[in-house]
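Honest question from a wet-lab person: if I give you the sequences of every part of a complex, can you actually get the arrangement of the whole thing, not just the pieces? Trying it with mine:
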Amino acid sequence: MAVAGDLSGRRRGRLSADATFRLILGSAGAGVLLILAAMLISTTIQAWPVFQHQGWSFVTSSVWDPGTSRTEVTGQYGALAFIAGTLVTSVIALIIAVPLAIAVALYITQAAPRRVAAPLTYTIELLAAVPSVVFGLWGLLFFVPTILRPMMDLIGKTLGSFIPFLGGPVVTYNYFAAGVVLAFMVLPIIMAVTREVMANTPEAEISAAYGLGATRWEMMRHVVLPRARPGIVGATMLGLGRALGETIAVAMLIGGSQQIPSSLFRGGQSMAGIIAVTFQEAAPENVKALIGVGVLLFVITVVVNMAARLIVWTTGGHVAKEQNL
Amino acid sequence: MSVSLAGPLHDTGRNASRRKRRDRIATGLLITAVVLAVIPLAMILFEVIRRGAGAMSWEFLSSVQPFSQRRPGGGYLQGLVGTLYMVAIASVLAVPLGIGAATFVVEYKQSKLSPLIRFFTDVMTGVPSIFVGLFIYAILVQGTIGFSTLAGGLALMLLMLPIVARSAEEIIRLVPDDLKNAAYGLGARRWQVVMKVVLPTASNGLVTGSMLAVARAAGETAPLLLTALGAFKIVPQLVGQPQSALPLLIYSEARGAYEAAHARAWAGSLELMLMILILTIIARTISRRAKAK
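Yes, you can. This is the full assembly:
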């Protein structure tokens, strides 16, 4: 490595080379900040007429009746049904994915032989590489009609007879189907963070538990799980952030109805879904309303993600950073 | 490092057998969970390969979609070209910008801007991809450049940027201080240290992170719906014409009711996943080789 020149480093040209360099890198960094600010501001400006027209009923009403005007806002834009769709499918996904992720992470870090642990980790992280549209295609043409439909029918007939939101007729593509496929999609991120937190359990405490005569399960319950709890909460919220913003797979599987369904086995629509599905045919005022839905979704996911990161950081999980999750 | 005691000790208490049974049940449940988690991946890979390979052919790789979804034959050539085109634009912009931002965060730690950039890059990783599409639509597509290759490429670039920046930061942080101090000791200026020591040392890791970001961008659908729109033929123009992409074609043909369209969608999925898999494997191999050094 040839570093030319004298050691004094006081010559003007060299000092300014450093300053220029700093400026270039600094503007790359500042670019990231500016882009984020521009995102929020420009979209909010676009959606403002709709926010003004609707007021709070934008989030409290479920009447979505787009107008066709180019300049004014004439339709009704109540996004409650889509907010419900996004939240309910995300919660279903988490209810399925979180226990699975915790169990898999426990197995990989505490119970699996090393020869099994590494390929297993790799395999589950492969799930994260499957594009969302492929999950959608698979769910639409294979998983939901052939595997999930009979299960949903069964649940509807048994549990549905006394649990209200599981009863009534079953439609193939619905909240539940979207939630289940979403669970597969958020599993890798939750598993990765949980695993990292569990791998940080101090060896001494594990040995101490065994030394006191604990079985492996008792060691997991009393040493690993309590220590990992904050990390698991953070991982869950990262998964939630991912689930809320997921678009294509949910749009393909949620059924496409614009009402709030009376049961999990009926169709609905999510916030990202309504944007993806109706955007291309929307009139200008409708586009503004869809951008408004996007702003709302952005704010919700950013808040969830910031909270998640604060929790994960303060509890020392490093994987979220390494894997760019 | 302390050594973990191998396995539980023998219990001589009265409820030893009950505790042992409980331990076995718990282990059984954990293994069940592992199987349940691996099943969807196995199913999805199996279906994509089975149905995708059935519909895959030279014709599929080398020709464009027929005008009617009902008609069999044809392929997704325009989607492949569009995806590569837009991903290339996105990479050219996002990789230098992301690495630049990451270098700033690590090498100028004392700057007040540093922690801010770091935190907001993190926030950016959580931005829903469809929102990125809406943003590009709002500022560029509407009125100025229209649905186009450039708009799609810029949307993908915004999705790649935080991924590149975050992974680059982790890698650059790993460059040993000794190495940097040695360069400073030789009288190098800061920019020389960064350009001639830090970045070359980190280069393998930087390539890996960037390729994983490319793999992520290649599979994105939602932002392209709002920026590239879709096309029936190969589009060489940068602006003025909507562009196609593999995920867009899969999405539009999967939603229809035609067998022929579904067959193409499966083949398209196989093509897309192979592309992403190859990128991922190359990226991982590079990083593993770097670690081995």
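Two things worth pointing out. Residues 79 and 286 of chain B are 28 Å apart (CA to CA). The longest helix of chain B spans residues 16-55.
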